[in-house]
Sequence to fold (383 residues):
Amino acid sequence: MRVLMSFWLSICVLCTGAVNAEELPGPNVAVAAALQPFIERQELAGAVALVADMKSILSITAVGAADRESGKPMRADSMFWIASQSKPITAAAVMILVDEGRITLDDPVEKYLPEFRGLMAVAEKDEQHVLLKKPERPITVRQTLAHTSGMPFRSAQEVPVLDRLSLADRVRSYAMTPLDFVPESRYQYSNAGINTAARIVEVVSGLPFEQFLAERLLQPLGMLETTFWPDEAQAARIATAYRPGAGGIGLEATKIEQLQYPLTDRLQRTAMPAGGLFSTAADVSRFYRMLANGGELDGRRVLSEAAIQQLTTRQTPTALKESYGLGFSVSEDRFGHGGAYSTNSYYDHRNQRVLIWLVQHAGFPGRGGDSQAAFRTAALAPQ
Fold:
């Protein structure tokens, strides 16, 4: 009886919160039932799982706790660090300027950022020496967004946190760092590449990236809860991060190690386009519904259909096994992106569904890692 009561309390919290209840649909009972066993086994602290089609949100299901220690339940409007789910959003901002003819994807980065002129690539490397050579061609904007530029994941200056340097200083540190390989010869996941593309947006637009992003993408899409700096009210809704407990059993609270605290600090913390955004499930769904609708949402166009095609189809060379678009992981069936603390979102072409999975987990004990698949199975099951 206590288990059943816990189950219904977890999904009924949708009727409270900063987002008006009438603006959101109810939970998917099948999804809640599929996730509840992970909660009870202490393999999953809590989650917000959203399903949408091209027109609207179909269900939004909150289960478990946003903070286990205080007993605060997860809510539909709980906020999360979406981490690398920021990458597709940053890539979309770049494509706004591509649509306007102000950026060309196959232009060399050095056209916009002269500090990248003469950038060298590692030809040989071992414990005793590093041999550099100049690539035949400089890195391009497209390559920075597709992780084929040869840029590292981050620079040595971005330790121990990723949000300390200004975007200009961060990108300048990349220009001082040799490429790990000749562009297009390999795939290497790179925050540095995405941040560099965002810096190009700053230079071309004349606006701080966060201002451009807000004015040209987030506000037009109604993504008013998506930000690099949660305010105090939003910070109170951020789900606590968890990791496996001692011996891989149970859960223990942790912090987001890649970021500085407090998260509300606009003086010490800086915008990190490759992975710094906080958001809600409803907000992220608006971004994916725009993509699914070919660049427009609620009758307002923010990107061309050609831009959507470039973002969401393979841009990596066919000789490479990795299939990546511009800021998106892509396959024949879907496009989307995950995040460092186990969040994920994607559009499923075959089922014409947007699936948003927001959790805050630095790993899972037991079978907790299977919870997202359980959500997908329940969400796409015939009604």
Observations:
- DSSP finds twelve helices and 15 strands in the chain.
- Residues 191-205 form the longest helix (15 residues).
